[in-house]
């Protein structure tokens, strides 16, 4: 294909995208396009985004039919919230006094106020490879031009959903916390590219959901871990995991990281969310009323929200499975519950706000949200 022809096709794609979105916008009176009754709720993510990609002959030239940044640019509200240039990961290279001073102004998970300089510096110094700076393979050869991601929450909506093959068909699959797979392959798929957690949520999941099948954190050679730094524990565990030594101090003292992450966990397996990114997400997308209450210091976006928003800032297309929907009462808390359990709203997260955000992002064509 000549360059000219390819550009022409790209223009055509852009026009097709805006056409679809224009049709959606013009069908509504409210600030967001409304869902045509029943239609999109049953649609698959492939139908939503268009077929996988147009194939120009080589894998390298697979292009997205409707990359999410198109949808963001066309949306009057979300265009002002998103800054896709915000650094997502924290790694060793820019560890300067300036970074320390800047992050020391905020409490965890938004910064390092009151945390040990030594513990943080010694962790970041180990995260000094290019793999730590980027979520996806740095090599352009290995990376599809249209990065299609599935983020799999643990919501009861997935029980009996038969979405496993659709989930596995994405380029990357994100999971989090009590990500039970065994016996739920048909509903949640089998692949895991990224597993996201805080040490607190990971260990709680292993305790609370062990009897329900979450007996170990997913481990695979090509799987990467995304640490959410909500506490000094996360930095200390991460450092010990890279060094392959028991945790020397703090809440998790004596823990052997290889019991969680496997015996061959080198620095390249780990990614660390940037505290500035968590603050940006919270302020722009999940600024909860809880932040004006006594629960201020307890509140943060849920692990699922942080993973979905991470995917939105790194992938070209994002499908969300197992996330809270407006009809959450129909479903159990988790897909792996043995008996139906209502979802409980604790004051550390604002799941109502998250549900509204996922619904709005879906209506805006920025994510595809699995609903039923
Ligand atoms: C987006 O984020 C980048 C990196 O933090 C920053 O340099 C830039 O000014 C931001 N853009 C806007 C419009 O806020
Ligand atoms: C990263 O740090 C380790 C330990 O300090 C060092 O051996 C290694 O060469 C560094 N790697 C890079 C890419 O700078
Ligand atoms: C999961 O779905 C099956 C049918 O697909 C149903 O029998 C079971 O009660 C559901 N489990 C929960 C906890 O709702």
UniProtKB/TrEMBL annotation:
Gene3D superfamilies: Glycosyl transferase family 29
Annotated catalysed reactions: a 3-O-[N-acetyl-alpha-D-galactosaminyl]-L-threonyl-[protein] + CMP-N-acetyl-beta-neuraminate = a 3-O-[N-acetyl-alpha-neuraminosyl-(2->6)-N-acetyl-alpha-D-galactosaminyl]-L-threonyl-[protein] + CMP + H(+); a 3-O-[N-acetyl-alpha-neuraminyl-(2->3)-beta-D-galactosyl-(1->3)-N-acetyl-alpha-D-galactosaminyl]-L-threonyl-[protein] + CMP-N-acetyl-beta-neuraminate = a 3-O-{alpha-Neu5Ac-(2->3)-beta-D-Gal-(1->3)-[alpha-Neu5Ac-(2->6)]-alpha-D-GalNAc}-L-threonyl-[protein] + CMP + H(+); a beta-D-galactosyl-(1->3)-N-acetyl-alpha-D-galactosaminyl derivative + CMP-N-acetyl-beta-neuraminate = a beta-D-galactosyl-(1->3)-[N-acetyl-alpha-neuraminyl-(2->6)]-N-acetyl-alpha-D-galactosaminyl derivative + CMP + H(+)
GO terms, molecular function: alpha-N-acetylgalactosaminide alpha-2,6-sialyltransferase activity
EC number from the UniProt entry: 2.4.3.3
GO BP: protein O-linked glycosylation
Primary location recorded for the protein, binned into one broad class: Golgi
Pathway assignment: Protein modification; protein glycosylation
Signal peptide: 1-19
Record's keyword annotation contains Cytoplasm: no
Gene Ontology CC terms, in alphabetical order: Golgi membrane
Compartmental location: Golgi apparatus membrane
InterPro entries per record: Glyco_trans_29, GT29-like_sf, Sialyl_trans
Keywords in alphabetical order: Disulfide bond, Glycoprotein, Glycosyltransferase, Golgi apparatus, Membrane, Signal, Signal-anchor, Transferase, Transmembrane, Transmembrane helix
Lineage top rank: taxon: Eukaryota
Classification via Pfam families: Glyco_transf_29 (PF00777)
Keyword Membrane in annotation: yes
Family: Belongs to the glycosyltransferase 29 family.
The name this protein goes by in its record: alpha-N-acetylgalactosaminide alpha-2,6-sialyltransferase
The organism of origin for this protein: Loxodonta africana (African elephant)
Lineage of the species this protein comes from: Eukaryota, Metazoa, Chordata, Craniata, Vertebrata
Gene: ST6GALNAC2
């Amino acid at each position: 294909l000549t360059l000219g022809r390819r550009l022409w096709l790209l223009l055509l794609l852009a026009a097709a995208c805006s056409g679809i979105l224009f049709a959606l916008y013009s069908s509504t009176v409210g600030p967001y396009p409304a869902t045509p009754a029943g239609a999109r709720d049953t649609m698959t993510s492939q139908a939503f985004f268009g077929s996988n990609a147009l194939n120009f002959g080589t894998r390298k030239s697979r292009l997205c039919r409707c990359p999410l940044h198109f949808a963001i640019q066309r949306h009057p509200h979300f265009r002002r919230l998103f800054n896709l240039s915000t650094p997502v990961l924290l790694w060793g290279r820019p560890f300067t006094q300036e970074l320390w001073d800047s992050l020391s102004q905020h409490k965890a998970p938004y910064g390092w106020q009151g945390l040990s300089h030594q513990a943080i510096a010694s962790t970041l110094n180990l995260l000094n490879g290019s793999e730590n700076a980027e979520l996806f393979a740095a090599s352009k050869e290995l990376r599809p031009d249209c990065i299609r991601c599935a983020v799999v929450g643990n919501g009861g909506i997935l029980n009996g959903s038969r979405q496993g093959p659709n989930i596995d068909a994405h380029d990357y699959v994100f999971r989090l916390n009590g990500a039970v797979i065994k016996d739920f392959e048909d509903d949640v798929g089998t692949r895991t590219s990224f597993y996201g957690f805080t040490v607190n949520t990971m260990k709680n999941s292993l305790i609370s959901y062990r009897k329900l099948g979450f007996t170990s954190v997913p481990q695979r050679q090509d799987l990467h871990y995304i640490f959410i730094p909500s506490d000094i524990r996360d930095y200390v565990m991460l450092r010990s995991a890279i060094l392959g030594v028991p945790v020397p101090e703090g809440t998790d003292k004596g823990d052997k990281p290889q019991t969680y992450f496997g015996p061959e966990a080198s620095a390249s397996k780990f990614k660390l969310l940037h505290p500035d990114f968590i603050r940006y997400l919270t302020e722009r997308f999940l600024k909860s009323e809880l932040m004006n209450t006594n629960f201020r210091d307890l509140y943060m976006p849920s692990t699922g929200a942080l993973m979905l928003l991470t995917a939105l800032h790194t992938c070209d297309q994002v499908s969300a499975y197992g996330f809270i929907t407006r009809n959450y009462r129909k479903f159990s808390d988790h897909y792996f519950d043995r008996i139906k359990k209502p979802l409980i709203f604790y004051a550390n997260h604002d799941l109502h706000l998250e549900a509204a955000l996922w619904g709005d992002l879906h209506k805006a064509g920025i994510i595809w949200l699995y609903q039923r």
